[in-house]
Amino acid sequence: MNSTDFVKAYAPATVANVCCGFDVLGFALDQPGDEVWVRKTETPGITISAIHGIEGLSANPAENVIGVVAQKMLDALEVTHGLEMQLHKGMPVGSGLGSSAASSAAAAYAVNELLGSPFSTKELVVFAMEGERKASGSAHADNVAPSLLGGFVLVRDYEPLDVVELGVPLELYCTVLYPQIELKTSLSRQILKQEIPLKQGIRQWGNLAGLMAGLLKKDYALLGRSLHDAIFEPERSILIPLFKQVKSAALAAGALGAGISGSGPSIFALSATRAQALAVQEAMEAIYSGSGIETKSYVAQVPEQGVRLVGHSSYEPAQL
Q1: Cα distance between residue 248 and residue 284, in whole Å
Q2: Cβ distance 26 to 146 under 8 Å?
């Protein structure tokens, strides 16, 4: 077989919402992330032959996001041959870091490469969204788009889908603290109010516009002033133990801003330098020390590139 018969792709974790950008803004992290391995098979259909790094995920391709995404692509291209897939999880599930999005993005990119790149990376967002639909019941793009495209991404609208790549106009490092508690996205959404006062809406719009302007003007101070969420964070933060203390510690240690990553429970903080991000990490971890809640933490740069190819070769049974 030639080199396009076996492909490995890596897709990174993401931070969605970014305080004031609820459901419309997200950015990529350079780590952690997921890998998806794919090879062609002569037998039609999709087989998930292995899942590494996590227990409890279904190997049924109709129930696993990587199989759902791959099948949508095969259907769109009317491909008759089959695929064998493996999922290598490098990030926690239910952390608020876009775990299902990373798997979906890696699957979409790997299958696209295997099939000769019929779609652009941006066009893959629609297919990766189907993995999100399977995982959460909603085909949202604020995680899969930055995982695929890298940097900051704005989802301007869904009808039709309009994804705006903002890139990484200024150097940013993200500290993420993941308290290892179970927090279902469905619960995080159930507690949200469906109507908001006009005054709160105006303030939120101003912060989102300020965040966009801060990025594009390369103004760290403006970016920091804009990283505020007065609408959803007060409601969601009550589900995350010690959230207020961790956020305060991050800001006191020099972070530009901090908030809930996605629907939580992970808490993120942005810094202008890696050294500052490491200091913020130490301050955030100290709050949970002695709490009895185990945590994981990461310091990652916001990368220009999202999903990427990490291997392609002639297939050998020992590889997959």
Answers
A1: 9
A2: yes
- Shortest CA distance to 105 belongs to which of 59, 60, 153? 153
Amino acid at the residue 49: S
Report how far residue 33's alpha carbon sits from residue 48's, in angstroms, rounded to the nearest whole number. Answer: 19
Buried b (16+ CB within 10 A) or exposed e, 47-80: ebeebeeeeebeeebeebbbbbbbbbbbeeeebe
- Is the pLDDT at 317 greater than 50, yes or no? no
Catalytic residues: 132, 185
Q: DSSP code of 308? A: E
Q: Does 226 score more than 90 pLDDT? A: yes
Q: Which two tokens stand for residue 61?
A: 């391709």
Whether a cis peptide bond, with omega within 30° of 0, leads into 265 is yes
> Taking Cα atoms as reference points, which of 93, 44, 39 lies closest to residue 65?
93
pTM listed for this prediction: 0.92
3-state SS assignment for residue 244: helix
Amino acid at the residue 207: N
Q: What is the pLDDT of residues 26-84, one digit of tens each?
A: 999 999 999 999 999 988 999 999 999 999 899 999 999 999 999 999 999 998 889 99
SS3 57: coil
Residue 71 Cα distances to 48, 177, 227, 259, angstroms: 12, 35, 39, 36
Q: What are the tokens at 46?
A: 């999709």
**Helices assigned H by DSSP within the chain:** 65-77, 99-114, 124-136, 144-149, 185-190, 198-216, 220-226, 233-236, 243-252, 274-288
The two beta strands, 82-88 and 46-52, are: parallel
Phi, psi for residue 172 in degrees, rounded to 5: -140, 145
**Rounded Cα–Cα distance for residues 97 and 207 (Å):** 22
> Using CA atoms, how far apart are residues 8 and 107, in angstroms rounded to an integer?
9
Counting runs of H as helices and runs of E as strands, what totals does the chain give? 10, 11
